[in-house]
Design a protein that fits this description.
about 650 residues; 2 domains; nine-stranded mixed beta sheet; five-stranded parallel beta sheet; 20 helices; about 40% helix
Length: about 650
């Protein structure tokens, strides 16, 4: 993976020259803390380092008015009192003699990153910039933001590189319109105008404290379905970390590793062409750790497992439901998942503003203590479980000359000790046969490497896939793994002797019928369209996987699995997340070398190939998904997409066989 890091030390020059409690959190140390952590973690040297350039005034004019650009140019000659007076004309902004230069560097860094990715000089990247840009308007600075860096990047991508439509998604602290900037158009029912209707997706958070489960649910049930249907050519991330734990502005609870998971999920889009541009984030330790997590994900490193219970809050479900309701008329992917969206607009009342958490007060001190504990725990976990030295290994019973692997992928030659292989082979006569026995030894050796932290993920071939899978499950459970997720694709039955103790979640795709035989045994037919397949993965497989929080993921492509290579690749890529990258893919010995190659590439961190044009799910596939979600969502909370009112409406919807739309 070639990841660009765009930065310039001169962006730290602008700073607050007078006392202003509202603006003092936007300080140069935000950049230096993030860069120092990247250097300490050895991440900066792994990136393609690019020195940011200034955006030209013509480039700034893609979004901003000439008068506004001229006004900003003039700030470099103003004295402190003049700067203070000018700053007072805007909302939560301060100017410095270096502001124009810094803001041009920030905008130029975003444009430079887009150029690097779209010309192929880099696969993806991060622009580490300040001042931020997402609140900036055409002719006004706002909320620490001077030029709208990501809006400029989008326009630049369209005009210089010929990209077309833009889909805008934003989640933000809103509190029914009572939180800054108190904009009615930030609510869920603000979806764009004219031909742009449906291309603005707002997901307003109406209470503070949203955590990992809430952000993951928003991705799985709103952003990703729409984004895969939209099929972008480029993904631009306004990477604001005021949603990170400890941040005084956002007051949310997303931990740093959550941002790695979100970034990794976005890499399934646009061939992995992802450009992240730093926006907010004002708790230095939380910011710097979160930035590192994003860069690791861009580099292809596995994301650490998510911490905390994966149960979305009721308020988050209400926001998700409202966003889905507003967007459902415009996106087939939201209509076909079988939910019952009911639009519930927020009560907009800017007069009722929430009280900020004052530094030094009891609430602030308690929040700081919690943040320190969480961040220290994450660092301890990363120290105890460092990134494995081998990211991906492939174990084959016979080498195929047509197989092409990335240079960094290890072609495993070793096997487990003969005694260990023989002990497991006694479970089934089929494993005693020569080729199956050799394959079993290789599978056990690879699995030991994954569970011992020497290898992150791997692929193995075997001529006896069903019985080898059973051994892999039992061996995993007896060797460090507390919970094993098995996603079995094809004609494969759950091993009859597998204990029903909640330690194994068996999910069969291409089962004979849609059935939840128990909380931990689920079967679903393989959908026949791209839309049906995506809904199955995003609305069923991933919510179950993240809710289960496994220590190991087994993906098995068995007899008559029916997956095309891009489908198999996307499934494997998306399942890298739930177990912190610990994924073993088992395929039949006769599988084409092209399939093994594409699986190795996505497990190594490359983007999966496109599924092709979006086509909606068949009525049969839709009904199967509705049926399963109805059976399972009481036990698996990550499947839920609605609050209590939505739950009642969805039950009525199932009874009448329709979908409630606004």
């Amino acid at each position: 993976m070639r990841t660009a890091l765009v930065y310039h030390g001169e962006m730290t020059a602008a700073r607050l020259l007078w006392e202003d409690p509202e603006c003092e959190i936007e300080r140069p140390e935000r950049l230096t803390a993030a860069l120092e952590r990247l250097q300490q973690e050895g991440l900066e040297r792994r990136c393609l380092q690019l020195a940011a350039r200034e955006a030209s005034e013509a480039e700034l004019g893609l979004v901003h008015s000439p008068e506004y650009v001229s006004l900003l140019r003039g700030t470099s000659a103003l004295g402190t009192e003049e700067l203070r007076a000018l700053s007072g004309q805007y909302d939560a902004v301060y100017f410095h003699p270096s502001t124009f230069h810094c803001a041009r560097l920030a905008a130029g860094a975003a444009l430079q990153l887009v150029d690097a990715v779209l010309t192929g000089a880099a696969h993806n990247g991060l622009a580490l910039v300040r001042p931020p840009g997402h609140h900036s308007q055409r002719a006004a600075a706002s909320g620490f933001c001077v030029f709208n860096n990501v809006a400029l990047a989008a326009k630049h991508a369209q005009q210089r590189h010929g990209l077309h439509s833009v889909l805008y998604f934003s989640w933000h602290r809103y509190e029914h319109g009572r939180f800054w900037p108190y904009l009615r158009e930030s609510d869920a029912d603000a979806i764009g105008r004219g031909q742009g209707r449906g291309f603005t997706v707002n997901l307003p958070w109406n209470q503070v404290g949203m955590g990992n489960a809430d952000y993951m649910a928003a991705f799985l049930h709103v952003l990703l379905p729409v984004a895969f249907e939209f099929d972008p050519e480029l993904v631009l991330i306004s990477a604001g970390f005021d949603s990170a734990i400890g941040d005084p502005e956002g007051q949310m609870q997303a931990t740093p590793e959550c941002f790695a998971h979100l970034t990794q999920l976005l890499q399934g889009l646009a061939g992995g062409r992802v450009c992240a541009v730093l926006e907010g984030g004002y708790h230095l330790e939380s910011l710097s750790q979160s930035v590192c997590m994003v860069v690791k994900a861009l580099l292809g490193d596995p994301a650490p497992p998510l911490s905390g219970p994966m149960v979305p809050q009721h308020s988050a479900l209400e926001s998700i439901q409202s966003a889905r309701a507003a967007q459902a008329p415009h996106w087939t992917s939201l209509r076909q998942q079988g939910s019952a969206p009911i639009l519930s607009s927020s009560t907009w009342s800017p007069e009722e503003r929430p009280s900020p958490v004052s530094p030094g007060g009891p609430k602030f001190e308690a929040a700081e203590a919690q943040t320190s504990a969480v961040l220290s725990s994450l660092l301890d976990q990363l120290h105890l479980h460092p990134t494995p030295p081998v990211r991906t290994a492939v174990a084959l019973t016979a080498l195929d000359a047509a197989l092409v692997l990335p240079p960094e992928v290890l072609l495993q030659e070793g096997s487990a000790p003969q005694e260990e292989t023989q002990a497991w082979a006694r479970l089934h006569k089929a494993l005693a046969q020569d080729t199956a026995f050799i394959a079993l030894g290789k599978v056990l050796h690879l699995l030991n490497g994954i569970l011992d932290g020497q290898v992150s993920s791997g692929i193995a071939t075997t001529p006896a896939i069903a019985v080898t899978l059973e051994v892999a499950i039992l061996h995993g459970l007896s060797h460090r793994a507390q919970r094993v997720l098995c996603v079995a694709v094809g004609h494969l039955d759950r091993p009859p002797d597998l204990a029903s103790d909640g330690r194994t979640l068996w999910l069969n795709i291409r089962g004979k019928e849609a059935a939840a035989l128990s909380t931990f045994h689920v079967s679903v037919p393989l959908p026949g369209t791209t839309g049906g397949f995506l809904s199955c993965i995003l609305a069923l497989v991933l919510p179950l996987a993240y809710g289960f929080q496994p220590d190991l993921v087994l993906v098995v492509l068995g007899p008559a699995h029916g997956l095309q290579d891009p489908q198999a690749a996307l499934l494997a890529a998306l399942l890298r997340g739930p177990a912190g990258g610990r994924v073993l893919v088992l395929v039949e010995q006769e599988s084409p070398s092209q399939l093994v190659g594409v699986l190795a590439r996505v497990l190594h961190g490359e983007a999966p190939p496109s599924l092709g044009p979006f086509s909606m799910a068949s009525p049969e596939d839709l009904q199967a998904l509705i049926h399963l979600r109805g059976q399972l969502e009481a036990q698996w909370k990550m499947l839920q997409v609605a609050g209590e009112a939505g739950d009642r409406a969805e039950a009525e919807c199932r009874e009448c066989g329709g979908t409630v739309l606004p």
